[in-house]
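G.,

No rush on this.
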Amino acid sequence: MTKPSVAIVTDSIADIPTDQVEELNITVVPAILIIEGQTYVDGEEISREEFYQRMPTFSEPATTAIPSSMAFDERYRRLLDSGYERILSIHVASQLSGMINAASQAAQAYDDRVRIFDSKSLTLGLGFQVLEAAEASLRGESLDSILEIVRSARERVRLVALIDTLEYLKRSGRISWLRASLGDLLQMKLLVSVLDGEVVRLGITRTHKKGIVQLLSHVKSWGSLERLAVLHSGIPEKASAFVDKVRHLTSNPPLIVDVTTLIGTHVGPKAIGLAGLCK
């Protein structure tokens, strides 16, 4: 088989399962996690399961950091030296992270050989765009053709989540409309979506059960799906059970993904959500 001419790069916030990363030759640049003053590379040194178990006991909130532009430069140079002609680097929404800034800074050294693409999403909302790009690359598509495919996927991805507690989102300060929320609101369950790179409030409820009903209502409105993933932060049993409620929405087996600690840092444990790629 002829080697693809376009390499696909993303960041670890894409939440793509390791087996698919390897199968589709995707290059992943890991983000940085800081726990009680100690730095970890996302996906290494601490498992997601351990992170979510320990999270409520941290003496200070975990924080996140983006990799340096040098980390991107090293990947780009290695890929081009290995024979790829072009690189498409697809990343978490620029409104939610500085990841694209670091990638763009590194890309400047390579002129038009490296293209940066803003997914305007995160976790599998980003990951599904990357998977579409990687599959197109393996088919031998040109960079321009892959970009059209990814732009189409960006318009068709959907992402919704039920946040168990607002405590971690409020601490992060990333959601401007949440900063004024006080008192009992912290005990509520929040339903959110990511639209055009922004976190949008869809609803709020006092019980998890009612939140799940709202979650399912939104997902059913998406219609038939090409891809589907159940996302969770440290509740694998509930996520597995939830699959039975949504598997009929797609002909492909849904993924079950324990979201990266970089997202978990902001949403906290016990969140559950869905990412879909509409047909």
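When you get to it, here's the other one too:
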Amino acid sequence: MPVIIPILGFALCFGAILVALLVVFKPFRSAVPAERRRPFGSNKNKTALSNITDSTVAVLDRTVGGGPYSRSKLEDAGLRMPPSNFLVLVIASAAVAGLSGLLLAGPLLAIVLALVAPLAAMAYLTFRADSRRGKFDQQLGDNIMLITGGLRAGHSVLASLDAAAQEALAPSSEEFARIVNEVRIGRDLEAALADTAARMKSDDFAWIGQAVQINREVGGDLAEVLDHVGETIRERGQIKAQVKALSAEGRLSAIILLVLPFGIGLSLMVVNPTYLGVLTTHVLGWVMLGVGAVMMVIGSLWLRKIVQIKF
């Protein structure tokens, strides 16, 4: 066992360096295909290492597909990187965490940390996506004023959205620019608005899409309608802020109760590995771990249901 640990450590370090050189820090590639930029047989200059790197990235992109690290998940989180790069970072993080746990307390902690890394990556994407959607909702009231200002100036809905995309803050500017670009390449405006509302999980923005649809069908003063919608959205925002402040204590208590068992377990693994080693050497210990995991899931869902208030 003492001989295997250094060999495994050197192998993981070499693999991490190789991944960093070939994938993370690889040269920038233009969005325009190489055959268009260099149409006279430039692929002949590619080395075998470049071909291996391209093949690996392509395989990882196909593997990720619609999984937890798909392109849509990364876009929701506001990350501008290919899914293959993010997957390589997760694998490298799991390998480093597993090696650290192996050196600190043995194989049990190594397995736990290696499994925690991909779960932490999923939690990170979820946190960033939720934060991005929250900012979008907070900015929506001001952005409606920008859109109505463009409509009153005589611009069309698309031109007003384009102007709002140039003046609004992220992530609203990114989403409005995406709507404008989709409509310019032939997509229907109503479908683009509905897709944005679904992607950002915003009922308020769905109202804007419905107002635009009704206006296109029956006519009327869209700016005045959006003013009323904006006023309603701002009132809902005030209520959301009050509810969030009142439920802050419950949400913090839920986070502490969920993190506390894992923190204590990791501390005991580092300080006294044999103390918790009994749980993995007897059948009763595995049963207790399974029951504890089920109770943790039930408790987390229960607490989430208590502190999550729908509008």
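The two ends are 57 Å apart (CA to CA). The chain has 14 helices and no strands.

Enjoy the weekend,
O.
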